């Protein structure tokens, strides 16, 4: 598939589907006229240039998005994106999660959690030909390994320049590959976060809901060595000076205004087949939702609120709850929507279109059939795989497994090692081990593992793994008392809970592991052969998918082009741009949701109890109508959150929402409940993103938390 075919489809269809699409920056110049008509005031070409304003001010945190907002490396993102770092710096005695934190000067700023990164994308290169070179007649595991080998070679060459992290991303299911080069800032510090009663106001109850009144924002700062290059944490490091930063608007936006978002959306599934849709919504989401909710209850019942153990698991709880509610919405709206029927109809139309031309039939005729056959093969052990996947919440099991794998991989030349175990990965590997201290409590983890293993033991014998059964004494069925005793012994005897011991195992040999008496190390040794066999089977399937899905996607793109439909790649955590307007919506018959909430809405919701426990000072300011320069006449108050038609998903959290001049007018942090299913299909009537209004962010900083030092540092447009 040639890039021109995708670009041509964009140019032909953009005007009719303007708010749908997560566009790669290189696609934007072809949309220039439509973007200008919608309200973009800067040159569309500038958005496609990653080393120029505004794109070089937009950064990734590796799971969330963010942006530079000062010449001294000040970075703004969501409160929930900084949650792990806030929790890492919190204890029961000094709970910065609950009470908030503000550094008044550089010396008071705190190191973020180990492994925290700020990634500045500098270059994106189409490397499809290099990645696929010489592999046209190869399939399965050989194809997978060939692709991975070429990816590693490209990455190694790219990372010869110190301070950069490079990755090869797959687009359109492997139809295209792009090499993305990012400067990797390794010294990240926490600067400011509002109290949880602001930053997480409404908690899980309001999550994904509208109206919303959440101050979901926090600040980091990027530091580098005195030479201006990325460096590990040091008290001698200096604030990074970005080439560009965003001005922050105190004027904000009003209903109908143009807005755009640049960020790093995680994953969407808009081109998945009907077989995949049916399995995901009718099996995976329901089972995953139930498991997450059970784990949440286990954590809450095992770690009392306010205890150090609970603080360690607050970030885990937030993530579990977020996606449990997400899956609930998916299930609810799938039942009401024609998603499956529409997907089947699309496939029928595609099949008919292919059959109308002998050349198309010869090329694409078996594309969907082959893909669905692979999908069904991959679903054969889905219940077992789901449970084993959730065992990943065990720090001890996963840490021991990864350490033993590292010992094996170190026996190979670096370029032959599995991704994640190369020399380039060791800093991140080390920091992952260091983070465990502030996210692990034996009593909590043991309860989670006990629950998951009980579920696993109830699987049919043919679905269980002999090595796992033998290690935990499950060969003859479940004996709860014996399993509990086994886990009690393991958690009592292990030394992996000690940071120094964990780090020491990175230097051990395979023989050292086999001779160890540590029960979790013994687990890793016992499971190694089984894990490697399962991984080999997975790679074989992956290689087959990497052949089948691109052909299917090529057919869809050609068909969409013939129909004048939009062509954009599913989100894959790479830099994207989406455009839209500030607009309300109708969540159900007879109701209309206006696009702004106000300070008074905070007061109306307040109960004095978590999660509706606004600070007393804030309630007093609202009662006094202390609006200052952030007053919005159209709503008679200070706007707190607003809605837009922006097409976004997870990973976009923390993305700067920009006006036509590329000034920051908000921070994207959520979507409405009705639009969660948008990961699978865009609906212009219900797709709405939720932003923290920049005026509320500035109001909290000035009047509630006294963050004058940061306000003075930013360029605020009044």
Number of strands: 20
Distance between the termini: 48 Å
Overall average pLDDT: 95
Shape: globular
The value of Rg in angstroms is 26 Å
Number of discrete helical segments: 27
Low-confidence stretches at least 5 residues in length (pLDDT < 50)?
1-5, 7-16
Largest sheet: 8 strands, antiparallel
- Overall helicity: 40-55%
Secondary structure class reads alpha+beta
Percentage beta strand:
5-15%
Structure description:
This protein is 44% helix and 14% strand. It is of the alpha+beta class and 718 residues long. Strands 1, 2, 3, 4, 5, 9, 10 and 11 form an 8-stranded antiparallel beta sheet that branches. A hairpin with a 5-residue loop joins strand 17 (656-658) and strand 18 (664-671). The model is unreliable at 1-5 and 7-16 (pLDDT under 50).
Note the topology.
Elements: H1 3-13, H2 32-38, H3 44-47, E1 58-60, E2 65-68, E3 74-77, H4 83-88, H5 96-99, E4 101-102, E5 110-111, E6 118-126, H6 128-132, H7 140-158, E7 164-171, E8 176-185, E9 187-193, H8 196-199, H9 203-206, E10 218-224, E11 238-239, E12 248-249, E13 258-263, H10 274-302, H11 308-336, H12 339-355, H13 358-364, H14 367-378, H15 382-390, H16 395-409, H17 426-435, H18 442-457, H19 466-472, H20 480-493, H21 499-504, H22 510-514, H23 519-563, E14 576-581, E15 596-598, H24 599-605, H25 616-623, E16 639-644, E17 656-658, E18 664-671, E19 689-693, H26 694-704, H27 708-713, E20 716-717
Parallel strand pairs: 12-20
Antiparallel strand pairs: 1-2, 2-3, 3-10, 4-9, 5-9, 6-8, 7-8, 9-10, 10-11, 13-14, 13-17, 15-16, 16-19, 17-18, 18-19
Helix pairs in contact: 1-23, 7-23, 10-11, 10-18, 14-23, 15-18, 16-23, 18-20
